[in-house]
Design a protein that fits this description.
CATH architecture: 2-Layer Sandwich
Largest sheet: 7 strands, mixed
Distance between the termini: 39 Å
Organism: Marimonas arenosa
Protein name: Amino acid synthesis family protein
InterPro entries: AA_synth_put, BB2672
Pfam families: AA_synth
Structural class: alpha+beta
Helix content: 10-25%
Number of domains: 1
Order of helices and strands: EEHEHHEEEE
Strand content: 25-35%
Radius of gyration: 17 Å
Shape: globular
Number of strands: 7
Length: 195
């Protein structure tokens, strides 16, 4: 199995106090982490890429731990998402390798009783400086409309052609001024990750 070769990590924390209306009781915080790594499959077709999933698991855990710290503890995490930008010498399927290491890392650290919803994701092939909108949903129920969001991630010098930029996102609550209706967080039953 290839070794994960990390070139750089980029993190960001955004605090939103209002969106033109009254100031929120607590700011809406969105934090993301991006790991830029070498793509061991760049420039060629490799039929068996699945073993790299296991190699990525420790990276996923480190990134998720850092995001939990940035939000002040797992009790503050209400939303999450993941994504990957694959450099131009790779293929979109290489981004799919991040689904399990990224998603399961967040769910493992948050705990089974605090993260029943599937972790939404997105991926694309892009050039240096490409940006990615990572979808976010509530950690317990995907249908909680107040927590639907996306967080733009990226880095000015990544991914290079032979790299992957792997992202995790966590948030601390609903969008500021959420008022679009639908299932509310206090109505979650927590049975199936949907409602």
């Amino acid at each position: 199995m290839p070794e994960v070769k990390l070139r750089k990590r980029v993190e960001s924390v955004e605090e939103i106090f209002h969106e033109g209306g009254p100031e929120a009781e607590k700011p809406y915080v969105r934090a993301w982490s991006l790991a830029v790594i070498e793509n061991p499959f760049a420039g060629r077709y490799e039929p068996d890429i699945q073993p790299f999933i296991d190699d990525l698991r420790p990276l996923g855990l480190r990134m998720a731990e850092r995001l939990i710290d940035l939000l002040g503890g797992k009790e503050n995490v209400e939303g999450y998402g993941k994504g990957a930008i694959i450099g131009e010498a790779g293929e979109i399927e290489h981004g799919a390798l991040w689904h399990a290491p990224g998603g399961y890392a967040m769910r493992q650290l948050l705990g089974a009783e605090a993260s029943k919803a599937i972790v939404p994701s997105t991926k694309k092939v892009g050039g240096v400086g490409a940006r990615l909108d990572v979808p976010v949903t509530h950690v317990m129920a995907s249908y909680v409309r107040s927590h639907f969001d996306s967080v733009e991630v990226g880095c000015n010098d990544a991914p290079r052609a032979g790299e992957m930029a792997l992202a995790l996102v966590m948030t601390n609550g609903p969008r500021v001024h959420s008022r679009s209706g639908g299932l509310e967080a206090w109505e979650i039953k927590g049975e199936d990750g949907l409602r």
